Here is the input.
Amino acid sequence: MPEELNTIELQDVTFSYDDTDEVSDKSARKALDGISVRIERGSYTAILGSNGSGKSTLAKIIDILEVPDSGKVIFFGKDASDDELFWDIRANCCCVFQNPDNQIVGTIVEEDVAFGPENLGVPNPELRERVDQALKDVGLYKYRHREITALSGGQKQKLAIAGALAMRPDVLILDEATAMLDPSSRDDFLKLVESVRLRKKLTLITITHDMTEALRCDRIIIMNKGKVAVEGRPEEIFLREDLWQYGLKRPVKFNFAFEIARLTGEALREEDLKSDEVLISRLTEMLRKPGIKAPEINRITNKKSADQEPIMTIKDLSYTYDGGDAKAIENVNLEIRKGEVLGIVGESGCGKTTLISHLNAIFRPMEGDVIIHTKDGNLFCSNKKDTVKIRQKVGLVFQYPEYQLFEETVYKDIAYGLKMMKVRKEEQDKLVREAASSVGLTDKELDASPFELSGGQKRRVAMAGVLAMKPEILVLDEPASGLDPRGRQEMFKIIKGLSENGTTIVLVSHNMDEAAVNCDRICLIESGKVKCAGTPEEVFEQGNAERMGIQRPRIARFSALLRTELKRSIPEIRFENVEFVPESEAAAIVRAVSKAGVTDAE
Amino acid sequence: MLSKISLGRYYPAHSFLHDTDPRVKTILYFAYLVAIFIIKEPIAIGVLGAIIILQLILAKITPGILWSTVKPMMPLALFIFVINVFTITEGDVIFSWRFISITEYGISRAVIMAIRLILLIISTSILLTLTTTPLKMSDALEKLFAPLQIIKVPVHEMAMMMSIALRFIPTLTGETDKIMKAQQSRGANYDTGSFINKIKGYITVLIPLFVSSFRRADELAVAMDARCYRGGKGRTKLNPLRLTLRDVLAGIMFFLLAVLVVVIDFSLR
Here is the structure.
């Protein structure tokens, strides 16, 4: 059957991890629960779903890294339960995983690429040719003798792709392979994978939390609790109103488009979502309809104004790592104002983490200083005697804080800092419970072992551990990384709640869209220097962004297209805000159109 | 701070010693190990030092890199020096106070012991870690110990384990550094306080480090599985070890030099 030879088919597959020791009461839960999926040869499929919905397990079943408890897997006509075909299938299907460091075996680039084909027993002239070709395909050939540790995160993921390509597979599975990359290396990586896919006619399956990334595929499968909840073309999927129940949401530009449709009382159809051009012209058509009511723009009032007093001053701060020749950060001057949410954005390796490590004296300033202004006078990070006080005033939560938990119970873990500060027992109890409730942890969870909780909950525990110390300034390094869209939104809600209670927040992020919406001010770091700082409107203003070479938020880029189109078709339109308004861009546009008073006379 | 420890790290370069067959280097390493342990005479140590300097040049290792490998071991060298100074009581006494007596002989012995330790570290670095990638080293050990397979020693697996351990040293030191920073910002203190408190402080680092190592091990195992790893059987090599005439000659020459050092040492006793 030719058709059978061209599909990967899962029939009624059930699978559960037998980790009774890890999660005692959840052990019976099935990771996959009677799932049936068909994937065509040469297709490009995205698998979406919340954390723990079984996406990664599905990938492992396809690559026979796990054997189903029941059900059948037919891989291009080969039955995966056949022991003879087992290695055949595995060699034909390659996986690239999330963490670059945990999938690289070699120390040198070409050694690692060779690992797969060496296992297949590819003989030598061909082996060399495969390795070189794979490295050329991903553009790493000139780095073939480099040490792995000298590569950036994006390069490491490309190396993982090369390692897969050298096995000459038909199927490539990306299991959240872009999750740890910053936006520009993410784009770069996806473009590479897509071009390789077309050239080599690969079947590509990508597991992701990034909805804009899912939009690039031909087909989307949404998983929920080990089952396929929905499947279809991206346009079909993102038209649905029920994505939220699967922990997902629409890509930012669709959110924006749907908001405009709502405000104009129109509806978007599936065919409108085909491409940016179609969507823009459809939106313009909607907006040109006469008699659109101008929506009220609730000016977000909690935007902190510029005249707030500073709570922290970073002065001429520079830092060079031991043995490094370049400065990791150079001459940074920045003022953090009381009660604001300050976003620090920039690409990986730009010095963000080095900078924030100074804010609570984990790194002592080499040149310059960090000064914290308190009621009882100034504290200086350069002064060793102030360290304890500073660590209490400034809470710092690093990226993936869930990996730092160590106590037997969540309660003890949260209380650790207080214990070290020698806070009285009763006081400790009060602070721990307050901190736990501010991140949404229940009393039941306080008695659990932190290692039993899900990834998102662990992260909250780690945050609570810092919050218990009642810091006035909270520094968060990528607090939402690795979470599904719902988890991200919840995290930002927590942060907003903290901010409303008067905590000053410094938020490190490489997601420009989230920074634009959630921050009062943004500071852009490039190669260790402050490139520009200001409100999101100022920083992402088109002219400024172009001058500075800043990647604008996706929504700003999309709405700029719409604004241009509107200006062309409605010459009398005037936008109140010259530039995009992060939280209420859709309303701002509808309002402008309504003010211009379009008549359908033309 | 921790990430700067280059113990066990490979230094990518093209040099005579980088290109030398790792099996030859491994055998030479054991020869020098024995030589370092046997010799006692300052002149022999001096000759050995000269040979090691020659090797450093042949490996294109700069003083900076050399220092970064030796530096972390300096406290140990100092410790050995001090212990020897205070425990050896033979010879002419230079200084004595109550039960402590320092002798000329003691100092000279202590210096020799410390220098021997440093030479040991240097020769491990130049012959093995700095000039040989972990995978090549595991290839070499696999080949050298292949005869043990007859008595069912899992040589390939052991060699693989070793190379993965070396590959993960920089990753785990980086991780330790991160965890320490994070715990410090939660109030942990590793610099001051009593000895017991410091040890307790390190528990906050070790537990997360273990947990994360297991997680990494799991993920790596899956990744290796996905890349069709199934032990040493039927594996081919991108750069198979090839013993050239040059390797053999270099091996013989350096081996003879090691013997020469031992002979000098014995003749001086």
Summary: Chain A has a mean pLDDT of 87. DSSP finds 23 helices and 20 strands in chain A. The two ends of chain A are 59 Å apart (CA to CA).
